[in-house]
Amino acid sequence: MAHVELSLTEAVEAAEPALDRWLCPVAGAEEPCVLVDADGVVVAASSACAGFFAVPPMNAAGRRLVGEVLRLIDFSGSDTELPEWELEKVPPVLALTSGALARGLLRAVGPVETLTLDAVTTPLRRDGAVVGSLTFFAILSGH
Fold it and tell me: Among 57, 34, 37, which residue's Cα sits nearest to residue 106?
């Protein structure tokens, strides 16, 4: 007798319709990327983010990216978490507040190691207003 296993996942729909078109491409991307809404809450993340997210990418939706999903530390080597004023300057947040492209280096504590990431973020707009952002990450090094 054959064994069949079935797993159902509740469909995710962004609160902002302009973000809906990005859900499937981001969730299915082979590159590490994340889609957040205007409040910095994760709407979708690719599975390639598993190496540096504090939670599995499939559990990231609905959580704040900075602080809950992405644990960022400074570059001093002391592994000190970034203060609030510095968190406002990381690309996924800066693109939301400035409405401009943002790029920067980040140190993220992953489940296995601390990684240096290059983050490139673009704001996403609807009718001229920023409604979210899309960030692509490149892993530069780990230790």
Answer: 34
Residue type at 122? T
**Cα–Cα distances in angstroms (integers) from residue 2 to residues 5, 6, in the given order:** 10, 13
> Do 55 and 62 form a contact (C-beta atoms < 8 A)?
no
pTM of the model: 0.84
Per residue in 26-57, pLDDT tens?
Answer: 999 999 999 999 999 999 999 999 888 988 88
User: What whole-number distance in Å separates Cα of residue 42 and Cα of residue 69?
Assistant: 8
- The predicted-structure confidence for 99-136, as pLDDT tens digits, reads as follows 999 999 999 988 888 899 999 999 999 999 999 999 99
Sign of the torsion angle spanned by Cα atoms 43, 47, 48, 52? positive
Res 111: pLDDT = 86
Amino acid 6: pLDDT: 34
Q: What's the rounded Cα separation, in Å, for the pair 36 and 65? A: 7
- DSSP readout, 33-80? EEEEETTSBEEEE-GGGGGT-SS-GGGTTTSBIIIIIB-EE-TTSS-P
